[in-house]
């Protein structure tokens, strides 16, 4: 990872202004961070489904968390966040490839969602984790494209927000100082936008800096105060460049930025993959899936319909 223009606030030459991950480091403390801005990519994912606002908001936050956390890892493959619960929303999935292709979906009970208590307008439609998901767990998986072992972490849904649940995991399981801030909203034309800010102080990096423990803790507390000063409006502002926001928040910490990474909506479904699955099923079993003489399979991520009439099935089973 090589630096671009150096300190935050410089104009730089990277043309990516939105749908990006901006890595950075606070030079006075060695704390590393990621700023994520999602515009068209988030709107493309949420806009493909007629989700009720609380569901869309929660899925948007999960997509942002996946974008922030995956960018802090070195991997080649797919990073996945999956939430399962016994509440009105029973499942949510967000995954992103090492190339920045992002997708996600949510499963929910429409009747239970409609029965939820109304939330104040200033909440942006955000329901708490206990109200929306109930009891369950959040799992993240790093699936490498090699023979390496797949890494997985699991944590109970213990917190008011999805970010709270993940912070609980990092505190208890990884013992890594982590700060996460995400927000989702719609602009004046109803398009979805989101922003996320993540900070981490890795134990090995903290020791390598030569600072004593008290000083490291002071650095961390100060960085958390600065992170908390970031408003939802700033994270959602399409006209506020990433580097300008980082300079506004952390200029006294000597913030230095690195090469930006693009994020885009991308689904990995294909007719070839689906047909490979169907071909493994007996023809008689596939016939029972017909509706009005056609087998229709819909991708949960992108809502693409794959249709197979008798002629298509004949070709498949040849």
Would you write up a description of this structure?
With 318 residues, the chain is an alpha+beta fold. It has two domains: 3-265, Hsp33 domain (3-Layer(bab) Sandwich); 271-317, Alpha-Beta Complex (CBS domain Like), CATH 3.90.1280.10. 34% of the residues lie in helices and 31% in strands. The chain has helices spanning 40-47, 53-70, 110-114, 129-133, 162-174, 203-208, 213-228, 232-236, 242-250, 271-279, 283-287, 310-317; strands at residues 3-7, 20-26, 31-38, 77-85, 89-97, 101-108, 136-144, 151-156, 177-186, 192-201, 255-258, 261-262, 264-265, 295-298, 305-308. The strands form three sheets. Strands 1, 2, 3, 9, 10, 11 and 12 form a seven-stranded antiparallel sheet that branches. Strands 8-7-4-5-6-13 form a six-stranded mixed sheet. A two-stranded antiparallel ribbon has the order 14-15. β9 (177-186) and β10 form a beta hairpin. The longest helix has 18 residues, at 53-70. The radius of gyration is 22 Å and the shape is globular. Mean pLDDT is 90; it is low at 1-5 and 9-13. This is Molecular chaperone Hsp33. One of its GO terms (cellular component) is cytoplasm. One of its GO terms (molecular function) is unfolded protein binding.
What is the subunit organization of this protein?
single chain
- Structural class comes to alpha+beta
Q: Would you tell me which CATH topology of the largest domain applies?
A: Hsp33 domain
The backbone outline, from C-alpha atoms, is globular
Largest sheet: 7 strands, antiparallel
pLDDT average, as an integer? 90
**What is the level 1 CATH name of the largest domain?**
Alpha Beta
Helix content: 25-40%
What is the count of β-strands? Answer: 15
Radius of gyration from CA coordinates: 22 Å
**Second-tier CATH architecture of the largest domain:** 3-Layer(bab) Sandwich
Q: CATH superfamily of the largest domain, please?
A: Hsp33 domain
Question: Given the structure, what is the number of helices?
Answer: 12
Low-confidence spans: 1-5, 9-13
* C-alpha termini separation: 50 Å
Number of domains: 2
């Amino acid at each position: 990872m090589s630096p671009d223009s150096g300190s935050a606030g410089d104009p730089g030459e990277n043309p990516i202004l939105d749908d990006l991950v901006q890595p950075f480091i606070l030079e006075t403390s060695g704390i590393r961070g990621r700023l994520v801005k999602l515009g068209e990519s988030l709107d493309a994912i949420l806009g493909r489904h007629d989700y009720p606002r609380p569901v869309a908001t929660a899925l948007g936050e999960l997509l942002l968390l996946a974008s922030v956390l995956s960018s802090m890892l070195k991997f080649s493959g797919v990073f996945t966040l999956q939430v399962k619960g016994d509440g009105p929303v029973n499942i949510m999935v967000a995954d992103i490839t090492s190339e920045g292709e992002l997708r996600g979906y949510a499963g929910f009970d429409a009747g239970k969602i409609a029965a939820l208590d109304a939330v104040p307008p200033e909440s942006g439609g955000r329901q708490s984790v206990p109200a929306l998901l109930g009891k369950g767990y959040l799992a993240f998986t790093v699936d490498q494209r090699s023979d390496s072992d797949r890494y997985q972490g699991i944590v109970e849904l213990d917190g008011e927000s999805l970010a709270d649940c993940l912070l609980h995991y990092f505190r208890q399981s990884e013992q890594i100082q982590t700060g996460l801030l995400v927000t989702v909203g719609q602009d004046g034309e109803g398009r979805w936008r989101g922003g996320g800010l993540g900070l981490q102080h890795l134990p090995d990096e903290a020791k390598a800096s030569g600072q004593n423990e008290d000083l490291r803790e002071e650095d961390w507390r100060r960085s958390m105060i600065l992170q908390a000063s970031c408003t939802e409006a700033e994270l959602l502002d399409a006209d506020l460049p990433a580097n300008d926001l980082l300079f506004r928040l952390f200029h006294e910490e000597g913030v230095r930025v690195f090469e930006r990474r693009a994020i885009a909506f991308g689904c990995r479904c294909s007719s070839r993959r689906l047909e490979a699955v169907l071909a493994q099923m007996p023809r008689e079993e596939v016939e029972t899936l017909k509706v009005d003489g056609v087998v229709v399979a819909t991708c949960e991520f992108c809502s693409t319909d794959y249709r197979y009439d008798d002629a298509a099935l004949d070709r498949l089973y040849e």
